[in-house]
Amino acid sequence: MTETTPAATPILSIVQLRKSFGALVATDDVSLDVMPGELHALIGPNGAGKSTLITQICGEIRPSAGRILFEGRDVTRLPAPARARLGLGRTFQITQLCNDFTAIENVLLSIEARHGGSFDMVFNPRRNRASMALAESWLEQVGLAGRGERPVSSLAHGERRQLEIAVALAREPRLLLLDEPMAGMGPEESAALTRLLLGLKGRYGILLVEHDMDAVFALADRISVLVYGRVVFTGGVDAVRDHPEVRAAYLGDAQPC
Amino acid sequence: MPLTLRQAAIALGLALFLAVPLLAEAGASPALLGLANRILIYAIAAVSLDLIIGYGAMVSFGHAMFFGLGGYVVGIVAYHTFGGEPLLGRSGSNAALLVWPLALAACALLAVLVGGLALRTSGVQFIMITLAFAQMVFFVLVSLQSYGGDDGLMLERRNMLPFIDISKPTTFYYLCLALLVIWTVLCSFIVNSRFGLILQALRQSERRAVNLGIRPFPFRLAAFVISAVGTGLAGVLWANYARFVTPDMAAWSKSGEFMAIVVLGGLGTLLGPIAGTAVFIALEQLLSIWTEHWMIVMGPILTLIALFGQRGIAGRVFGGRRD
């Protein structure tokens, strides 16, 4: 599959994807590529269908038509867990963590999930030094060093967003779908998260859905603009900034930068 | 220091249970041993049910079917062993090491069937489907005319174990205690294991787990079957304790009783439900001496604990981690 010049094969390829709920067309003939190591940002106003697109890519809902290729392989019919096992990782717009667990247990879960989970009913993963050290290192990477033993329910909002990313990373995905990682964050936290994502850039293919335009312009290699379920434009950062249709459709008077 | 409090509570509880036969022999009350024995047997079922409700959020309202099936396998085999006609060309056996595993295997099989269907759903539908299956088992037992139908089935004598004589009440009591301890230790290994981590993650955020590559169904089914086997073991012991099985063992009210006990003791704590069983059965006993309408008192007590004691009576001591 990937034997033919891997650099040329997109890690994620969406081909003429379409999803309608009754008369409402949430995803309208969307085609989009993410290259290995590329950070592709997806922007668009609320209700443009960004989250619907993400849930189709990760397999939680089925598209009405079109195809999704992961590393050249058609995954359109695969259920979500199978796609995750192929290397498709994601974070959620609304934090999805195990709130009764500690931070490090959430990361441990992700490490365990690399093999689809285990039926080992004796061995306590919290007692495994290698796993714990690995989990701790993921926490460090996202800036949560020393916070591992805190229950998730006692973490601040920003910390949970960081943990959300650590959990996704610990799964060792090849493609990351980041669904509004900055949602609900203050400017300082956003800036810190932008630095974190800059550090991750190049190691994964990343599809980033985000409203924070400073972050998008700082991070993206390419930007696609989604309006009413359609990709109205795809291009580099400068091209998007200057594109009149994009300004009219989405950026409006915001005057980024 | 919750850890030492927890250890102290475990040591105290264990010491109390160990001392019961001595107290009973010392003439405290001959009924005491029987009461404590019933607590031990029900506690095995309660711990098993907590495994799936407390740790897996699978609210089974039909667990009495496994209690009933475990008991009936023992009862039916005993019926054929003592005096009845041969069963499938065999004359039956009274060896516990043969009959008990057979009963547990039957429960596991039923659990695979019921769980396999019920776990396609969740929430209220799951509750209703487990209830429906339990009712089916109940009516099948009622319709077994050759095995007593409504009236149930008497057992000539208890099953035989090598080396120990469980026809003696004290010996049987200690066997039940040992089995409860072993089962609880096994269950606590399970919930702290890699499997347990995933089971608990599925309770807290199925969406997260699924998007990490975990297929929920096999994990839930495994937990459901383990829980059913534990409940079946309680049924097996009950049949031996009472030497009498009735369809009521599988009645929906029995399922409700198990659930009430688990909630009373504290969901997701394993040890809490043991304390819950002790309180429930002791209260039932005391209140029913006082009045035959003991449920009038028991009902409000349960409601209050469910409303205000979110972790049950012993949840704080045994450390459920929910806030």
Which key features would you list for this structure?
heterodimer, A: 257 residues, alpha/beta, Rossmann fold, 2 domains, 6-stranded mixed sheet, 4-stranded antiparallel sheet, 9 helices, 35% helix, 23% strand, disordered C terminus, B: 323 residues, mainly alpha, ABC transporter involved in vitamin B12 uptake, BtuC, two-stranded antiparallel sheet, 13 helices, 71% helix
Q: Output the radius of gyration of chain A.
A: 19 Å
CATH architecture descriptor text of chain B: Orthogonal Bundle
Look at the structure and give the CATH class of the largest domain in chain A: Alpha Beta
Q: Proportion of β residues of chain A? A: 15-25%
What is the global morphology of chain A? globular
Major pleated sheet of chain B: 2 strands, antiparallel
Overall, the morphology of chain B is globular
Strand order of the largest sheet of chain A: 6-7-8-3-9-10
Percent strand of chain B equals under 5%
Count of domain modules of chain A: 2
Q: Specify the CATH class of chain B.
A: Mainly Alpha
Average pLDDT taken over every residue of chain B: 91
Give the number of helices of chain B. Answer: 13
Low-confidence parts of chain A lasting 5 or more residues at pLDDT below 50? 1-6, 253-257
